Amino acid sequence: MKTMNNNISLKIDHTEFVQKTKEFLKNVAKNSPLGITLQTTDNDVHAVVYEAERFVIVVPGGTKESAKLYGNWNEALLYTQRLLKEKCHAQNITHLVLTQYKA
Length: 103
Hints:
- It is built from 2 helices and 7 strands.
- By secondary structure, it is an alpha+beta fold.
- The chain has a single domain, classed as Dna Ligase, domain 1, CATH 3.30.1490.
- The chain has a 7-stranded antiparallel sheet, covered by helices on one side.
- β5 and β6 form a beta hairpin.
- The longest helix has 19 residues.
- The protein is globular, with a radius of gyration of 12 Å.
């Protein structure tokens, strides 16, 4: 895990997405609201996931029109993982970068 300009980022294998994201969120939990930006290693943004009020919002591809609301992080991360499986296999992506999301 590395810090850049007060941002924390972590390079992960897409197959470990849910586990590594939960660990990442524990490390940044002191910063509120919690959130991540998920990118491929070539900086192509695939999703933003963040807390807002009592929900966890998943914004696939960074477009708010396709945003989905979830009641907890587990549901949101499982949905995001399904999105990633489709993109990762289609584009041969093996590594992702999690970055702390700041609204």
